[in-house]
Design a protein that fits this description.
By secondary structure, the protein is α+β, with helices and mostly antiparallel strands. The protein has 14 helices and eight strands. The longest helix is centred in the N-terminal third of the chain and has 25 residues. It is globular and about 100 Å long.
Amino acid sequence: MRTILGSLLIVLIIACGNLYAEDVTTVEAKDSDVSDNLDLEAVASVFGESKDLEDFEKRLNDPDTQISNLDLNEDGEVDYLRVIETTKGDTHLVSIQAVIGKDQYQDVATIDVEKKGKDETQVQVVGDVYMYGPGYIVEPVYVHPPVIFVFFWSPIYHPWHSPYYWGHHPPYFHPWHPYPRHRYQTNVKVNINVNNSYRHTSVRKSKTSIDLQKKSRRNDFGSKNPDKSFSKRNDGAKNKQELSKKKDQPKVDKSKADKSELSTNKKVQKDWKPASEKAGGESKVTNNRVSAPANKAKSRPEVNKSKSNVKPSAGKTKQQIGRPSAKVPKNKPSRNLK
């Protein structure tokens, strides 16, 4: 009996532990978006440090660095990202696709690599419109020419096409549970080479890459879930860049906005009373406001009408009007001065 109770207790503890683990790995901030789960600056940085596209794919899926936090099919594990390449002349289109099911793939981002002149190579990391909205492009400027450029322009070059698919992953790949947005973004920043610069633009420079993408793009997840596109998820934000700016802006309490506009930031005495009420008169305060007549001229002292109506005679001078001279009474005798 004790053995049975002990076994049941162990099963119960394991079950509770699994439930707790699921709660921990699926917690997401309310303002989180699926585009927050793959930092394209980190992708651009890792791309510049790879020796070839096979190495690049390995770095994207490395369980130690965890560059990606994407779980599009919501199976509780981060999706494997495969790398597919198509070329035309001096243009290479590198597509990053999430493996979400059997023969199901979703474009996450592309990297346009185009040779400009003898010693110049142009690189743009373009977020897929379904994931990041239109015109979300990271343009890295590497402090040193990446080794991977030698791979692209080698005379024995061969395009890379990932051999991995659903259920068939490389031995180094061990799926991990996605993290909450804030934790992922804190960790992934460590993998961004700060010696490079990463400019954001909305202009895609390679027309050849656009044509190549039209032929190779996979949108299996997007076609089944059109309501989860960036435009549907984020009303009022054009793309990931605008969304990030809105998140960085301080939030204003609308209930206090009107009051704050009228505030002078000075403390008001709670037992304050107008002079009329202090003198015992009727209060003129209504709803914490005192009404006052608009555009009323300043009050003047009232003039005594009885004096103001007296008109001086026309024959008197201004001095007589201002200071009348003294008169001697007629019947008073004058003194004899000796």
